[in-house]
Design a protein that fits this description.
Blueprint: E1 3-9, H1 16-27, E2 33-39, E3 54-56, H2 67-80, E4 85-89, H3 91-100, E5 107-112, H4 121-130, E6 136-139, H5 142-152, E7 159-161, E8 185-189, H6 199-212, E9 217-221, H7 227-236, E10 243-247, H8 253-256, E11 261-264, H9 273-280, E12 285-288, H10 293-296, E13 304-306, H11 311-323, H12 325-342, H13 345-360
Parallel strand pairs: 1-2, 1-4, 2-3, 4-5, 5-6, 6-7, 8-9, 8-11, 9-10, 11-12, 12-13
Helix pairs in contact: 3-4, 6-11, 9-12
């Protein structure tokens, strides 16, 4: 009989964690695993393409009068569908799963995907209350694992690292081509709802680059409530005719493939999907030395690392890569080989399947 796994997540939008979860659900061996999906909020993006049993809780918070009813619905679903294992993503799902654990023999696995940019005293209390009810945790990088060990005192033996994966076969060109264009295009893929992505640093560095490379052009792929502020900044530093904001794009790889250089400016990262996407397209990467970025990038070998918030250094390294096409080609190819050999989606799914079997059987 297959192992019934219930994934609980806030919503299934277009974020990196959400897309990784969708790939995992699609690729699980259905002869051994039957995935189920529970979302706490409406999900109109990726959920329709998933042919799995689903539960929508309409969760409005732990202090809302409907909370007990939503907990009862979750409890009933776990019992009715004989769920063997629950894997949670983000804080509210952590606590909801912990609250029904005393009434079931179900195993709980928590997912750690970032370095806690969401931390407040309230969110910390939720997580620390829930931890004892969990049978184990999965982190998507060593940096993330170390964060939760150091901040929350979790035992290292309770946390397994499984890196994110990328589907190389989804990229039309199986071998990266040389990324040299005139004018050179420099891009960033980022969530514009999160200040920790520091997209303003990309814009400030771009303004410095065009002083020496006036033909360069720039693109910001992504959307969010910070976009108007970032567009205003771009105009104020003289980039109005040099930068494009695409908004949300369903398949950012189509645009990434046109980059000459891909940039990440975050002050905190778990394991950056955008870096993997750049590398999978053979695009040379410049990223901040934050979180799990240094696990993906060996500076000067398969990418370039720069200090967080250092727009001067970022601009210098951008100019270097634009000017030194041989170096750019070398690190672009090295990045491609890294994701091809170390971060395949198939390898990621296999490690999850092994983890599930070890926790249930």
């Amino acid at each position: 009989m297959p192992i019934n796994i219930l994934y609980i997540i806030n919503t299934l939008g277009y974020g990196g964690t959400e897309r990784q979860l969708v790939e995992l659900i699609h690729r699980l061996d259905r002869s051994r695993f039957q995935p189920h999906l529970c979302t706490l909020k409406a999900s109109a993006a990726l959920i329709d393409g998933l042919d799995v049993p689903k539960l929508f809780l309409e969760f409005s918070g732990f202090s809302h009068p409907s909370c007990l009813n939503q907990l009862w619905r979750l409890w009933r679903y776990v019992r009715t569908h004989n769920i063997h294992l629950i894997q949670t993503f983000f804080q509210d799902p952590f606590l909801l799963a912990a609250m029904i654990k005393p009434f079931h023999k179900v195993k709980l696995i928590g997912s750690f995907r970032d370095l806690g940019f969401w931390r407040t005293s309230s969110e910390n209390r939720k997580m620390r209350f829930a931890y004892p009810f969990f049978d184990g945790f999965i982190a998507n990088s060593l940096a993330v694992k170390e964060h939760f060990i150091n901040i929350d005192g979790l035992s290292p033996e309770r946390i397994e690292v499984i890196y994110n994966g990328i589907d190389i076969s989804s990229i039309s060109e199986k071998q990266p081509r040389k990324k040299f264009y005139d004018p050179p295009l420099v891009g960033i893929v980022a969530n514009l709802n999160r200040p920790v992505k520091r997209v303003e640093d990309f814009i400030k560095a771009a303004a410095l680059v065009i002083r020496e490379v006036p033909q360069a052009i720039f693109v910001v792929v992504g959307d969010g409530h910070l976009r108007p502020k970032l567009e205003s900044l771009a105009n104020s530093v003289g980039l109005s005719d040099k930068i494009t904001f695409t908004g949300r794009v369903d398949n950012p790889l189509q645009i990434v493939a046109t980059f000459q250089i891909g940039v990440i400016t975050s002050e905190t990262e778990g394991f950056c999907n955008a870096i993997m996407e750049y590398m999978a397209c053979g695009v040379p990467v410049i990223a901040t030395n934050a979180g799990g970025n240094s696990e993906l990038i060996e500076d000067g070998v398969n990418g370039v690392l720069v200090p967080v918030g250092d727009c001067q250094t970022l601009s210098r390294r951008l100019i270097e890569l634009i000017s030194n096409r041989t170096f750019a080609e070398i690190i672009g190819m090295a990045g491609y080989k890294s994701v091809q050999s170390l971060y395949s989606i198939e390898d990621m799914v296999t490690k999850y399947e092994i983890h599930y079997e070890n926790n249930v059987l």
